[in-house]
Amino acid sequence: MKCKMLASLCITEASRWSILIRLALAGVFIPEGIQKLMFPEILGSGRFAKIGIPYPEFMGPFVGWVEIICGSLILIGLFSRLAAAPIIITMLVAIFTTKIPIWMGQDWLLTETMIFYVRDLKAYGFWSFMHEARLDWTMLMAACYLFIVGSGQWSIDKLMIRKCDM
């Protein structure tokens, strides 16, 4: 029974070449997570405070660890669907907090206590938003892909399913 429940989380019929998507995601999120912890004033809590993320002292390290752990799980192909979900949330938050203000060309007031600040750029509006959001969008779509199809044939998920079938 446990094996069948585990297999239902890990099932994947995706191509073995899904490993390329996994490598891309891990290659971005693991180093970014590490840097949020190593350089908190620049990329972690300090940056989060500057852009208006609530509770930056907590959220900076928390997001760093989420990126490291989920990126590592995706890299090895273990519970990739589950690991993709926090990455999807992370990317949506990144787009809403850092890219929407670029589109609007001004700080974005979500509530009276949540203001997301626009950074200093040479241009604002839709095309600047599209340019600045290109990596966020790519990582969001890659994580959505893994969430839908799973980690693929070259993964620990696939090995676990094979063991359950025996």
Summarize the structure.
The protein has helices at 2-10, 18-38, 40-43, 45-51, 56-76, 80-104, 126-132, 134-149, 156-165, and strands spanning 108-109, 115-116. The protein is an all-alpha fold and 166 residues long.
What report would you give on this structure?
The protein is an all-alpha fold. The chain has one domain (23-149). 72% of the residues lie in helices and 2% in strands. The chain has helices at residues 2-10, 18-38, 40-43, 45-51, 56-76, 80-104, 126-132, 134-149, 156-165, and strands at 108-109, 115-116. The chain has a two-stranded antiparallel sheet. Helix 2 packs antiparallel against helix 5 and helix 5 crosses helix 6 (80-104). The longest helix has 25 residues, at 80-104. The chain is elongated and about 60 Å long. The two termini are 13 Å apart. The relative contact order is 0.20.
SSE map:
Layout: H1 2-10, H2 18-38, H3 40-43, H4 45-51, H5 56-76, H6 80-104, E1 108-109, E2 115-116, H7 126-132, H8 134-149, H9 156-165
Helix pairs in contact: 1-9, 2-5, 2-8, 4-5, 5-6, 6-7, 6-8
Within the largest sheet, what's the order of strands?
1-2
Shape: elongated
The domain tally reads 1
Poorly predicted parts: none
Amino-to-carboxy terminus distance: 13 Å
Mean pLDDT: 91
Secondary structure: helix percent: over 70%
Order of helices and strands: HHHHHHEEHHH
Give the beta-strand count: 2
**Alpha carbon gyration radius:** 18 Å
Q: Output the number of helix runs.
A: 9
How much beta, percentage-wise? under 5%
Structural class: mainly alpha
Largest sheet: 2 strands, antiparallel
